[in-house]
Write a structure and sequence with these properties.
This protein is of the alpha+beta class. It folds into 4 domains: 181 residues, HUPs (Rossmann fold, 3-Layer(aba) Sandwich), CATH 3.40.50.620; 131 residues, Methionyl-trna Synthetase, domain 2 (Beta Complex), CATH 2.170.220.10; 136 residues, Isoleucyl-tRNA Synthetase, Domain 1; 90 residues, OB fold (Dihydrolipoamide Acetyltransferase, E2P), CATH 2.40.50. It contains 18 helices and 26 strands. Strand 18 and strand 19 form a beta hairpin. Helix 10 packs across helix 11 and helix 11 packs parallel to helix 13.
Length: 675
């Protein structure tokens, strides 16, 4: 790593079917940005590559639900995502799109090379087919129960709960995400990458040679290899994506996880059309992927297998994948809107990018899952950024203006204390660089704060406010040392807190290249950070609770305005006439020519029955398959829009008026009686 001539750094291509949340930032983009800014500050030749991943099934599902084209979906979210990254200071050299022509051409050429070399095996297999929708189902169109962890909302390619990579035939009780119906098996031909053969010839040695990879990365890779890789189809029967460049492959596109990593290459071509190859084919270039743990297999196993099979490309030197970030004790969930979206944070906390950068780095999930809470955010901003960093810089500037009209005074650097503190500053800076080079960003930032703690101790022990009465020259030297420390802090802080570092350079009337000079006129002091009050934090906690209906137990504010009065009493005999049971939704579809109605098929453990429910404005049909509900089972049947409804599911509302299923807190047996 240290001897690399140049660096190609990539951050996982965010999927263009929604905005960016703080889990994405903590997992891939913030650590990548810190690393790239550090490389640039050290004069390294580096390019920082990213863009939106715009193919695959979730985008087509969203487009179908919204009755727009997939291109409209990806263009909309590209603008939201790219704007959020730019405002947050993520310093990509290019942020491209995989729907661009240059990417389609690059991915198709890559496939053609592999095909001409005889890498693929053409295999006719039985694939799931949705008879109602009259189309083959790509892996993400299939939902079922994970055989590893029993998550009943696993996809046909991966269980997002346990991270296991799957094939559709491994799912238990698979259903189509399009219609909610059980698919049939139908024959089709696809082109497979023989990962079993590539494992023996290349991957085993490749993975085992990576002694310096993080244990969470190498451990997951070795687990895959120990289980034994299987051939994987690199084409799909879809109409949205990169067309397979073969006459006999009409109506087929490249598998999204084949074309997506090639997006790094196509984006580099777009950025450097004449010089892109030296960043992808020169052995003196280090290729580094920043990703979350759910992408480890694709970047450490499948993409290297593709690059090796193609030939001529360098392979990843490092893949410093992070674990997951949770929110207020719960897993971040985009489907439940349990997330802090970056664009919303920037609206609610304008000009406070560094505050979030600092907190996310402080709790970075580098080796295990971490938890973001608003209370911790407030405490770190107030107690660390404001009270330690901001307070020290402000004290130095205020005293310099008070005693010397803001002019930097001469310093001989002869005092032992002065020599010691300069030595300590250099030691800390070296340690910060060493830690960044090892991808230990959380520890590196902690050392950054230690530099300011060193300054706080120095100025407190020196007591210039007392010394000014007897030794003005010495006070000038003390403040000179503190200004040097502040400048060195700003230089080291550039990768972590770029907006704050620029403010400090402006205050010191200097830049990162210049040293502090005698006689420099400092600008008037400003507060680098503002304390965040309880009211603002409570609003954010309440916002999460309302959006996602997640219980946050330290929040005492509960809205009660929508709670209805209790109805008149009934006697016990009336109550025991009701038959309420647990049931599971196994199919769900919209009722034609209606806005609010869903037709649900429920498994009651006794029978399978149809219930029509007015919840279509609150739930997408494919998202509620597998949900357990409370069913009033002995309600008199009635016809709704020509459909006989046998029962009623019980619902309630959260504080925002969003419908919520009344469900058992743990999985229960279908047909179990509610007493």
């Amino acid at each position: 790593m240290k001897g690399a001539k140049r660096y190609t750094v990539t951050a996982a291509l965010p999927y263009a079917n929604g905005p960016i949340h703080i889990g994405h930032l903590a997992g891939a983009y913030l650590p990548a940005d810190i690393y790239v800014r550090w490389l640039r500050a050290n004069g390294k030749d580096v390019i920082f590559i990213c863009g939106t991943d715009e193919h695959g099934v979730p985008i087509t599902i969203k487009a179908k639900n919204e009755k727009v084209s997939p291109q409209e979906i990806v263009d909309r979210y590209y603008q939201i995502i790219s704007s959020s990254f730019e405002k947050f200071g993520i310093s990509f050299d290019i942020f491209s799109q995989t729907s661009k022509e240059i990417h389609h051409r690059t991915a198709a050429d890559f496939f053609t090379t592999l095909n001409n070399k005889g890498v693929f095996t053409e295999t006719e297999t039985e694939q799931y087919f949705d008879e109602q929708e009259n189309q083959f189902l790509a892996d993400r169109y299939i939902i079922g129960t994970c055989p590893k962890c029993s998550n009943d909302k696993a996809y046909g390619d991966q269980c997002e709960k346990c991270g296991t990579s799957l094939s559709p035939d491994e799912l238990i009780n698979p259903v189509s995400a399009l219609s909610g119906k059980t698919p049939i098996l139908k024959k089709t031909k696809n082109w497979f990458l023989p990962l079993d053969k590539i494992q023996t010839e290349f991957l085993n040695n490749f993975i085992n040679s990576k002694k310096d990879w993080k244990t969470n990365v190498s451990g997951q890779c070795k687990s895959w290899l120990n289980e034994g890789l299987k051939p994987r189809a690199m084409t799909r029967d879809l109409d949205w994506g990169v067309k397979v460049p073969l006459k006999e492959a009409e109506n087929k596109v490249l598998y999204v996880w084949f074309d997506a990593p090639i997006g790094y290459i196509s984006a580099t071509k777009e950025l450097l059309p004449e010089n892109w190859e030296k960043y992808w084919k020169d052995p003196e270039t280090s290729l580094i992927h920043f990703i979350g743990k759910d992408n480890i297999v694709f970047h450490c196993v499948i993409f290297p297998a593709m690059l090796h099979s193609h030939g001529g490309y360098i392979l990843p030197k490092q893949v410093p994948a992070n674990e997951f970030l949770n929110l207020e004790g719960e897993k971040i969930s985009t489907s439940r809107n349990h997330a802090i979206w970056l664009h919303e944070y920037l609206d609610d906390f304008p000009s406070k990018q560094d505050e979030l950068r600092y907190v996310l780095t402080s709790i970075a999930p580098e080796t295990k899952d971490a938890d973001f809470t608003w209370k911790d955010f407030q405490a770190r901003v107030n107690n660390e950024l404001c009270s330690i960093i901001g307070n020290f810089v402000n004290r130095v500037l205020v005293l310099s203006h008070k005693y010397f009209d803001g002019f930097v005074q001469p310093c001989s650097f002869t005092e032992a204390t002065d020599k010691n503190i300069i030595t300590e500053i250099k030691k800390i800076q070296i340690e910060i660089s060493n830690l960044i080079s090892e991808f230990k960003f959380r520890e590196a930032q902690a050392e950054l704060v230690n530099m300011i703690r060193l300054g706080n101790k120095y100025i407190t022990d020196s007591e210039p406010w007392h010394l000014i009465k007897t030794d003005e020259k010495r006070v000038g030297e003390i403040l000179h040392i503190c200004i040097v420390l502040t400048h060195n802090f700003a230089v080291s802080a550039l990768p972590f807190l770029p907006f704050t570092a620029d403010k400090i350079f402006d205050l010191l009337n200097t830049n990162k290249e210049q040293t502090i000079k005698n006689g420099t006129k400092l600008n008037n002091p400003i507060l680098l950070f503002e304390k965040i009050d309880d009211e603002k934090i409570e609003k954010q906690i309440e916002k999460i609770k309302i959006k996602s209906n997640v219980k946050i137990f330290d929040n005492p504010h509960i809205q009660k305005s929508s709670i209805a009065e209790i109805k008149p009493n009934i006697n016990f005999d009336d109550f025991v006439k009701t038959d309420m049971r647990i049931a599971t939704i196994i199919e769900a579809e919209r009722v034609e020519n209606t806005e609010k109605l869903l037709k649900l098929t429920l498994d009651t453990g006794i029978d399978k029955r149809t219930v029509v429910s007015g919840i279509a404005n609150h739930f997408n049909p494919q998202e509620i398959i597998g949900v357990q509900v409370c069913l009033l089972a002995n309600l008199e049947p009635r016809k709704i829009k020509g459909i006989e409804s046998n029962g009623m599911i019980l619902m309630t509302e959260n504080a925002d008026g969003q419908l919520v299923f009344v469900s058992p807190s743990v999985k229960a047996m279908n047909g179990a009686t509610i007493r």
